[in-house]
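Quick one: structure tokens for this chain, please?
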Amino acid sequence: MNKVHPNVASAAAAEAEAAAAATSAVTPAVGEEKGEAVALTVWRRSLLFNGKGFTVFDCKGNLVYRVESYTGGSPREIVLMDADGHGLLTIRRKKLSFADEWLIYDGDAAATPSSAAAPPKRFTARRHLSLRPTRSLAHLSPARAPAGPAPSCRYDVEGSYAGRSLDVFASSGGSGAGGEQRRRVAAVCQKEAAVGPDVFRLVVEPGFDPALAMAVVILLEQMHAS
């Protein structure tokens, strides 16, 4: 995948700055001083003209992440980039799967030379399927390490992506004496200001990777669009 560093024209830049200004005006730095959480504003639009994707700002209006898609529909592979265009995570829809399934890799998987080793796979994500009404949306299972047991921690996504109201829970442990432990690590919610569904807030708890939290948002966008 070719990367295009956005040479943003004035109109797109003005709109991006307006979204960032709305962020700083209505979204305080959640726990920034206390170290409790990180608040990001997600803008469901690419900085490139006619490009679909996401642009993510921190509470000060600084560009943190971006996603740019150059094809219509639901592309099979999407790269989450930092502000400079470096690939952080690749979200790839799995082919020939009986269930809706995606794979998450470190870095930009498409940019890896064919002669080089494949980038490490971090997670397998599956859409939750049920005939009954449920809040469950998706499940992320960590990749099994070579010649070793699979890590015990997994992530469950619950809520409503269309309503921009959902939680990401980390579950670890099992049926032993301690039982399963479950804690919320990230949440998506609507902005306090009436800025529409294309601008919303992503709150990431300490110890959880904000890039992985954004990857969950990308996954839900793909599941919702597919």
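The mean pLDDT is 79.
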